[in-house]
Amino acid sequence: MTAELTVLALSGVLLLVHVFAATHYKTKQYGVDWNMGARDEDTEPLNDIAGRLDRARGNFLETLPLAIIALGGVVVAGKASDLTAIAAWVWLAARVIYLPLYWTGVPKVRTYVWGVGLLALLFVLGVLLLG
User: Fold this and answer.
1) 4: nearest Cα among 69, 85, 76
2) What pTM was computed for the model?
3) Which of 16, 112, 12 is nearest to 71 (CA)?
């Protein structure tokens, strides 16, 4: 299996970590009945940690489709290389580092880490489109 596909598979694991972490802290705040119900009722705003984890999950879900397109695309198009593999690993590492930074409320560095991940994906997308 190519490095790009391995990274995509591992990003599925990271997605589960995001979902379960965010849901765990929401359930701690709102209770098990909320979690197991239809969640139609109005709720108070999320506390700081639950809110950060929910936003981090949403941010990951916003960038994951681009990763699927870019990383999967270079594999399907036969354009995968050592450089796209490195970029794939850089993107995944940035996303793994991003979660605890956001979770703990670290400002600025979190944004720089996000930017590194985005640049890695843009590189792969460039290879797909131009390479």
Assistant:
1) 85
2) 0.94
3) 12
Contacts of 83 (CB under 8 A, 6+ apart): 123, 127
Q: What is the pLDDT of residue 41?
A: 83
**pLDDT, average across residues 59-67:** 97
**Cβ neighbour number for residue 23 with a 10 Å cutoff:** 15
Distances (CA, A) of 104 to 19, 33, 52: 17, 27, 8
- Rounded-to-integer distance, Cα 118 and Cα 46, Å: 27
CA distance 87 to 67: 11
pLDDT tens track for 93-130: 999 999 999 999 999 999 999 999 999 999 999 999 99
82-103 and 3-30 are packed helices; what angle lies between their axes, rounded to 10 degrees? 10
Cβ(26)–Cβ(20) under 8 Å? no
What does the alpha-carbon distance between residue 10 and residue 47 come to, in Å, rounded to a whole number? 29
Residue 129 Cα distances to 18, 20, 49, 79, 103, angstroms: 30, 35, 39, 10, 35
